[in-house]
């Protein structure tokens, strides 16, 4: 089918030229402007450097041209996209009620209503039979806005004041508002832009954190309700650019904890939350390579730390009056094979989130008896974690359980009797039956012999004849594990015969903290070769066909996909790079950009010759070559603060100029959103339906 559209052509040194009613669909061609970087003796050419400036009208016109091209090329997919959207929507209970959570004599919950994009946050006093009190209707806040992200920041201890944060651009610039629930009036209306927020115990004082120009959280202020911002007190400024600042309260609400942390080192201070004007006191001074996090119970700090070379972390304690690290003592025997991921304290118990052999576990410790036990789960591969548990004096906790075939379910678990009660299993309408799907966990072998797990799910009845369509996803950075969780939207893939797989590659913490260390800095390439090994293994084991394989990753996972495509462009039929971090060298050389300095400890500092040369070897943008690539979809947003829009934009521009194949290359830029795409739930679903339509067509599925 020949499509007719109006296209824009950007040529070197010229203004935008327009050709109307062109019978052939042509992609925009970005003009090239000389820009070079002397990089450790090698001259790097970056002719698309100019695309970095979104205040330049030519840049906006180029993005609009890319969007126009993408719309024209995918015009025929609109009916299929609508079919996918309606199917995905059919699997979502549009009017729904979250599980109420008890805190301070109230039951707090959120709910959604059919046809409305955003949730409503509510509470009831005493019981769920009491009258509903509407705390926040995000739909009202979103009126007249192209984007809206609203985050509840909690109530004061007396339940009177309710704080929330709003971002209306997608750039993750959140402003704090506080409502007096006794009058319904705002006492503070978007009074400050904050990257962190916490209440003190006096119900009048709040602490908030602000960012510098590179979006690093670095200053902590104290504010008193009703007072001008000009009178706010600067409590602390973190001057080391490798560190970011955070503020939170211990679970018993006794102390405020101020944290300065890099990706390798921690320093914390504490303050009695009942005396917000007092000074914070040091727990343990920062020592390179030592990470720790404290919580409080009964006069003692409980510490999750890697002190003493505990790669997978351990549990230590100390008295509040003697909290320097020389006074820390092991609370339990260290188990090197078990990765201690989290430690949550309650009055009589602790719940430990840990991971062994790649499988997440919940372990309960009884402070009274000293006994401990693990909570059992029915499937060999799953994801589990504590959900909202705001009350410290509790014998029952809640956890969320899910797997590739089990929708998210929230349980109440009695820590004394070990009895569990299902509070809510996510309802998946539209004919979903868990028994119609099969989940597996298999392993691929990386080039260095390491066994890399793969979680996969498919519709029952799959014939492993090597002909099925495959969809392989991963992330592989920052120690974030790729968790096997259920997705109602994914059903549109599975019901069309797609085998969906997740690769648990190095760079995440899927197999423990060492798994992360083996996929960062000068070992980063393991992340890419692990992924390729997983793709090859799925094809070799005849789960599906190479020519029907789609691969996907987002953000740092987009770097993964970009690096894989340069290494092995034949690895797949189609690739989706979502908000991808692909311009590694240029971004990491620019310390004014968000995240750059702090991420020297994740990727390396390119100004250091050895690190710079290694990073250059895999940087997706810098390694695009004159060769064939598969079909590629790249998605981004103009107001992305995590991976600025120019990275994927430059990547597509260079790829268009270099690649030698005739496969489709599409850039979709949301002009009104940020890193997570559209904010409304329906618009977000439509974006996903479009992405699925593009990938499925390339996989040979068009209905």
Tell me briefly what this model is.
The protein is 17% helix and 34% strand.
What this model shows, in words?
The chain is an alpha+beta fold. It has a domain at about 435-700: Rossmann fold (3-Layer(aba) Sandwich), CATH 3.40.50.1820. The protein is built from twelve helices and 41 strands. An eight-stranded mixed sheet has the order 34-35-37-36-38-39-40-41, with helices on both faces. Strands 5, 6, 7, 8 and 9 form a five-stranded antiparallel sheet that branches. It has a four-stranded antiparallel sheet with strand order 10-11-12-13. A hairpin with a 5-residue loop joins strand 18 (about 245-250) and strand 19.
Cα shape = globular
How are the strands of the biggest sheet laid out side by side? 34-35-37-36-38-39-40-41
Summarize model confidence as the mean pLDDT.
95
* Structural class computed from helices and strand pairing: alpha+beta
- Oligomer status: single chain
CATH level 3 topology of one domain: Rossmann fold
Radius of gyration: 26 Å
The CATH class of one domain turns out to be Alpha Beta
User: What summary fits the major beta sheet?
Assistant: 8 strands, mixed
CATH architecture of one domain: 3-Layer(aba) Sandwich
Tally of DSSP β-strands? 41
Count every helix, treating DSSP H or I runs of 4 or more residues as helices. Answer: 12
Indicate the proportion of strand residues: 25-35%
CATH superfamily of one domain: Alpha/Beta hydrolase fold, catalytic domain
The low-confidence parts are 1-24
How helical, in percent, are the residues? 10-25%
Terminal Cα separation, in Å? 17 Å
């Amino acid at each position: 089918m020949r499509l007719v559209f109006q296209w824009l052509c950007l040529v070197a040194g010229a203004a935008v030229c327009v050709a109307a009613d062109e019978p052939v669909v042509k992609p925009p061609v970005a003009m090239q402007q000389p820009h070079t970087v002397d990089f450790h003796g090698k001259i790097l050419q970056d002719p698309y450097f100019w695309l970095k400036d979104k205040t330049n009208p030519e840049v906006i016109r180029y993005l609009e041209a890319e969007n126009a091209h993408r719309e024209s090329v995918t015009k025929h997919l609109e009916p299929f996209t609508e079919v996918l959207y309606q199917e995905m929507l059919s699997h979502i209970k549009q009017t729904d009620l979250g599980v109420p959570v008890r805190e301070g004599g109230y039951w707090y919950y959120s709910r959604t209503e059919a046809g409305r994009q955003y949730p409503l946050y509510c509470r009831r006093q005493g019981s769920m039979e009491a009258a509903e009190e509407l705390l926040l209707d995000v739909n009202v806040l979103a009126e007249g806005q192209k984007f809206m992200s609203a985050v509840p920041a909690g109530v004061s201890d007396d339940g009177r004041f309710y704080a929330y944060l709003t971002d209306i651009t997608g750039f993750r610039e959140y402003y704090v508002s506080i409502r007096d629930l006794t009058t319904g009036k705002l006492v503070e209306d978007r009074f400050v832009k904050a990257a962190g927020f916490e209440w003190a115990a006096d119900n009048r004082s709040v602490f908030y954190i602000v960012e510098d120009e590179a979006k690093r959280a670095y200053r902590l202020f104290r504010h008193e309700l009703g007072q001008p911002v000009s009178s706010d007190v600067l409590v602390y400024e973190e001057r080391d650019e490798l560190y970011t600042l955070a503020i939170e309260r211990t679970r018993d609400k006794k102390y405020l904890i101020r944290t300065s942390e890099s990706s390798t080192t921690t320093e914390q201070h504490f303050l009695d939350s009942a005396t917000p004007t007092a000074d914070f006191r040091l727990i343990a001074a920062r020592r390179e390579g030592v990470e720790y996090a404290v919580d409080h119970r009964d006069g003692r700090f409980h510490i999750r730390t890697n002190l003493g070379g505990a790669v997978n972390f351990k549990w230590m304690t100390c008295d509040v009056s003697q909290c320097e690290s020389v006074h820390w003592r092991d609370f339990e025997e260290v188990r090197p094979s078990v990765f201690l991921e989290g430690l949550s304290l309650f009055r009589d118990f602790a719940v430990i989130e840990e991971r062994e052999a790649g499988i997440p576990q919940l372990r309960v410790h009884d402070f009274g008896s000293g006994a401990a036990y693990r909570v059992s789960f029915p499937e060999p591969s799953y994801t589990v974690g504590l959900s909202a548990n705001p009350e410290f004096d509790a014998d029952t906790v809640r956890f969320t359980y899910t797997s590739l075939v089990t929708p998210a379910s929230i349980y109440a678990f009695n820590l004394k009797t070990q009895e569990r009660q299902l509070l809510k299993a996510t309802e998946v309408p539209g004919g979903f039956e868990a028994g119609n799907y099969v989940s597996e966990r298999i392993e691929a072998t990386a080039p260095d012999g390491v066994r890399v797990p793969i979680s996969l799910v498919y519709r029952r009845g799959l014939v492993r004849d090597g002909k099925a369509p495959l969809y392989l996803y991963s992330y592989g950075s920052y120690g974030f594990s790729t968790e096997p969780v259920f997705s109602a939207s994914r059903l549109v893939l599975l019901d069309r015969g797609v085998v969906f797989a997740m690769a648990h590659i190095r760079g995440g913490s899927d197999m423990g903290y060492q798994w992360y260390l083996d996929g960062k800095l000068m070992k980063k390439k393991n992340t890419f070769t692990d992924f390729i090994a997983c793709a090859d293994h799925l094809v070799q084991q005849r789960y599906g066909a190479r020519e029907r394989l789609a691969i996907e990753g987002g953000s740092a996972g987009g770097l993964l996909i970009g690096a894989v495509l340069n290494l092995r462009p034949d690895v797949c039929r189609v690739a989706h790079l979502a908000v991808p971090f692909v311009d590694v060298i240029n971004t990491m050389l620019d310390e004014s950009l968000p995240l750059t300095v702090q991420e020297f400890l994740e990727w390396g500092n390119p100004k250091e010759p050895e690190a710079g040369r290694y990073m250059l070897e895999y940087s997706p943008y810098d390694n695009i070559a004159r060769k064939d690539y598969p079909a590629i979809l790249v998605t981004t947003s103009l107001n992305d603060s995590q991976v600025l829009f120019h990275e994927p934009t430059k990547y597509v521009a260079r790829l268009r100029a270099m690649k030698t194949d005739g496969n489709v290359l599409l850039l979709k830029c949301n002009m009104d959103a940020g890193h997570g795409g559209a904010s409304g739930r329906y618009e977000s679903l439509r974006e996903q339906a479009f992405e699925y339509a593009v990938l499925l067509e390339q996989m040979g599925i068009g209905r």
